[in-house]
Design goal:
3-stranded mixed beta sheet, alpha/beta, 9 helices, Trp Operon Repressor, Chain A, 2 domains, 10 strands, 236 residues, single chain, Alpha/beta knot
Length: 236
């Protein structure tokens, strides 16, 4: 799987993508993550990528020109939505998706992450300021996605969220496949059961004793499975 991220703050991604599971997956050639500085595709010496909105309004808007140029460079002009002779909505045959991260987009969820994990390549455009020229949505991006009903200062954190969520569903990125099959949202409306580990008893003071449920210490796998089902949301 290859991810291409378009941003004006490429340094934001260095620490997150170079630690833990994502770093190991890149080292093992399971993932390729490329970050592209949108300012490198600006047309003037000041590297300007935004301007005031037509019709007035507060804030600045990302220009369409540099976004078009970076997309044409990284995936090829002929593969852009505006130049495809025939396009089917949500067509995954080309195995590449261009996604604009935007507060007004469709809300990202686990089902979408699973769908995206079947692709070969995802391009994520990180919005900033007041927004992005709507021609990016109409003619360049395949989908417009939000990570929740709240506003962030930019699309960088949502991009990290999507890369992380999709990557862990790719074969061999996470070592234990069983943990993915049983985790929250692996099925519709499913939230995973509670987890406990050692010690069996923990006392933050002399009058308090926090215990692990007895059934989990019993060794009776049928009762343990029943307890897990009872305490998962799908069965409540």
């Amino acid at each position: 799987m290859r991810f291409d991220i378009v941003t004006i703050f490429p340094e934001m991604f260095d620490s997150y993508f170079n630690e833990g599971i994502l770093a190991r997956a890149q080292k093992n050639k399971l993932l390729e993550i490329n970050v592209h500085n949108l300012r490198d595709y600006a047309q003037d010496k000041h590297k300007t990528v935004d301007d005031t909105p037509y019709g007035g309004g507060v804030g600045m808007v990302f220009k369409v020109e540099p976004i078009y140029k970076v997309l044409a460079k990284i995936i090829g002009k002929s593969k852009l939505k505006c130049f495809k002779k025939k396009r089917i909505k949500n067509d995954f045959k080309n195995k590449t998706k261009i996604i604009l991260l935007s507060a007004k987009g469709k809300k990202f969820d686990q089902a979408m992450a699973m769908r995206f994990s079947k692709l070969d390549r995802i391009v994520l455009i990180c919005g900033r300021y007041e927004g992005v020229d709507e021609r990016v949505v109409k003619y360049l991006a395949d989908e417009e996605i939000s990570v929740g009903d709240y506003i962030l200062t930019g699309g960088e954190i949502p991009a990290m969220t999507i890369v992380d969520s999709v990557s862990r569903l790719i074969d061999r990125v996470v070592g234990n496949k069983e943990s993915i099959r049983e985790e929250s949202f692996s099925k519709k409306d499913y939230l995973e059961y509670p987890h406990y580990t050692k010690p069996k008893f923990f006392s933050p003071d002399k009058k308090t004793n926090w215990k692990v449920p007895e059934v989990l210490l019993s060794g009776n796998h049928r009762k343990i499975d029943d307890w897990k089902k009872k305490h998962s949301k799908a069965n409540n």
